[in-house]
Write a structure and sequence with these properties.
Layout (H helix, E strand, L loop, with lengths): L2 H11 L13 H4 L8 E4 L4 H12 L4 H13 L20 E8 L4 E9 L4 H11 L4 E3 H10 L10 H12 L14 H9 L5 E7 L5 E7 L20 E4 L3 E7 L1 H5 L3 H10 L4 H15 L16 E7 L4 E7 L5 E5 L2 E5 L2 E4 L5
Parallel strand pairs: 3-4, 10-13
Antiparallel strand pairs: 1-5, 1-11, 2-3, 2-6, 5-6, 7-8, 8-9, 9-10, 11-12
Helix pairs in contact: 3-4, 4-5, 7-8, 10-11
The chain binds aspartic acid.
Aspartic acid binds next to strand 8.
Length: 351
């Protein structure tokens, strides 16, 4: 059957999750109780996104419009150098962005990876989901797809991120031909962002009980060109099951790629764990699986951080990291928008 016919037939039959058999889970464990939206949950750098998305949802806005509208504000802001326009570049000084969206009611998803020259990858990810038969487009193909949809191509490197990158390049080795300039504000920023993992994740439960999630990032700063992190990978950097909940992550993407962390968080919530417990359980799993010597401190603990954010269908939220996160996560609901504390396994990393 052709895709259009299939879509038409399933729509005519009204086939939704209610009519499909549960896949190996008893109905009771799939239903986490009455939904209490709208609820928005956003990573620590996303207060403005939380406020935007909550307002949209409270005014009856559509859930993807609300959360993508929220993260677009951060993608457009050159002051956040971990996302979108003005994000830190790869080792060649080129900004390559990753993003994905997942929509609970249709269990559909879209993503773009290592896309260059397009400042709003989250919007492009949505178009991949809604206007193509694919889930993930990468690199040049992703850019061409975005341009076909009218996105302008632009240089995403700002003067600030170019200077941080140049400082990184010049101080990389004393065996090459690049000489470091004087110690200045960019040296300071480089110290702060050398091992930067920065990203924005936003999930929401709307008033109808439908869930959606988006994660968008410039990825690991100074990465090898072509490196794809967890953010555009469904199950790794975000995941939604409309009957259970949604989860997303920031931090070392490689750990989420090898553990499929966000899928696991949603599965733990399905089994009855609270969002916070589910996030912590996945942190424990990552620590257990972390065997490579270059990723371990002397005490055996990971030498990297990963943070998780989750919301269930009942509107409960939680967040947790392997190490005590430097900031909380944002929640928006009937009580307004506020920052809540994250759980964690360990107080602080070995220096
Ligand atoms: N998870 C992102 C990545 O690995 C980066 C981050 O969240 O800081 O690309």
């Amino acid at each position: 059957m052709k895709r259009r016919e299939f879509l038409k037939k399933t729509a005519a039959l009204g086939i939704g999750s209610a009519l499909l058999p549960a896949t190996g889970f008893p109905e009771s464990s799939r239903d986490q109780g009455a939904a209490k939206g709208p609820v928005v949950i956003v990573s620590g750098n996303g207060e403005v996104a939380a406020r935007h998305a909550l307002k949209q949802l409270q005014q009856g806005g559509e859930v993807l419009d609300a959360i993508i509208g929220g993260v677009t504000l951060v993608e457009d802001n050159p002051e956040d150098i971990t996302v979108g326009y003005g994000g830190l570049p790869n080792e060649d000084g080129v900004v390559q962005l990753d993003a994905a969206v997942m929509h609970g009611p249709t269990h559909n998803a879209g993503g773009v990876a290592a896309i260059e020259g397009i400042r709003n990858p989250a919007k492009v990810a949505r178009l991949v989901m809604e206007r193509s038969d694919h889930v993930l487009l990468v690199g040049e193909g992703a850019k061409r797809f975005a341009k076909a949809h009218g996105f302008p191509e632009e240089n995403l490197l700002t003067d600030k991120t170019r200077k941080i990158w140049l400082k990184w390049k010049e101080t990389l080795s004393d065996q090459d031909k690049w000489f470091p300039g004087p110690d200045d504000e960019y040296s300071e920023l480089l110290r702060e962002y050398r091992h930067n993992y920065g990203t924005i994740h936003c999930s929401a439960l709307d008033a109808n009980g439908d869930l959606a999630a988006v994660t968008t990032t410039s990825g690991l700063s100074f990465k090898i060109p072509g490196r794809v992190g967890d953010s555009p990978i469904i199950g790794a950097g975000l995941y939604v099951d409309n009957a259970v909940g949604a989860a997303g992550s920031t931090g070392r993407g490689e750990a989420n790629l090898t553990n499929l962390s966000c899928f696991m968080i949603v599965e733990f919530m399905r089994m009855g764990k609270s969002p916070q417990e589910a996030c912590l359980e996945v942190c424990r799993r990552i620590v257990d699986h972390n065997r490579l010597p270059h990723l371990r401190h002397k005490d055996g603990r990971p030498n990297f951080g990963v943070n998780f954010y989750a919301v269930n269908r009942a509107g409960e939220t939680g967040g947790a990291g392997i190490y005590r996160p430097s900031r909380g996560y944002w929640v928006g609901d009937a009580k307004g928008v506020r920052e809540l504390e994250m759980g964690y396994l360990f107080e602080r990393r070995e220096e």
